[in-house]
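Researcher: Here's a chain I'd like modeled. Treat it as a single chain, no partners, no ligands.
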Amino acid sequence: MARKPRGSAKGDEMHTLSPEPPLTFPQSQESEDHPRRDFLPSYLLNITYPSSKKHVDLGNKIKPSAVSSAPDVYAHAMDAGDRSDPTPTIRSHPTLVLALTDPDATSRADPVKSEMCHWIVVAGSSASTQEPIKFEGIETIFDDPPESGFEFTTDSSKAYELMPYYPPAPPPETGYHRYVFVLLTPKPKSKDVLAAAGLKKPKERPHWGYGKVGKGAQDWADDNGLTPVGAQFFYAKNKKQ
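Model: Modeled as a single isolated chain. C-alpha cells:
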C-alpha cells in the first residue's frame, strides 16, 4: 500500500487520493458549485513513463523532467472481490476516456488557472475484460473539432487524443502540484452518449475551457455524460522553490 507523501520543506499541505475506495474526484477546492464527490473505482490504472521508467503510485513524487512525454497506460477491470461494493464483475470493456488534470495551477495557494487540462485520450470498447485496455497507437484526430463533437471509433486496437499530451511543468516557487489521471466511462443511463453526441474538446486548457477558477475535469465529464471509474496521481514541483 502506498505511503502518504509528506509536505515539502516549505510546509506544503499534501492532499492524497486514498489507496482504498472510495476515491475523490480531483478539485482545487470544495465549494457549493464543486461539492466533494467520492466514487468507488471499478478499474485499476497502471501508469508508467517509459522514457524515465517512473511509475505513478498514488501520490509518489516524480520530477517534471521524467514526465516530458506521454506515459504507457493500462486499465484493468476489477473483479467484485477486488473492491468493497457489490457491483457485479464487468464482463466487457466499455469505451474508456482518460483525462490528466492539474487542480493546483498555478499553485495550491493561488489556483488561478485551475484546473489545467493536460491530456484527454479515448480508447475503444472491447468484448472481454480478460485483458486490460492499453492506451496505445495514439492518433490525434483534429486540432479544431466540429461543433457536433468527436465521434469515436470502437476499434480497441487504437486510442485517440482529444487533447494532446501537455507535459506537467509546475512554475518556480509554487510547491508541489497534484497531477491526476481520471478514468471515465459513459454513465449507466447514457451508454450511447459518446456515439450519439460526441465528446466536446475543451476550448482551452486553463479551467478546461470554462473560463472560471476551479472548473475542470468533473465539469467536463458531467457535460459529456461521463462518470469516473478509476484514478491515479503523482506530485511534481519545479526544482526552484
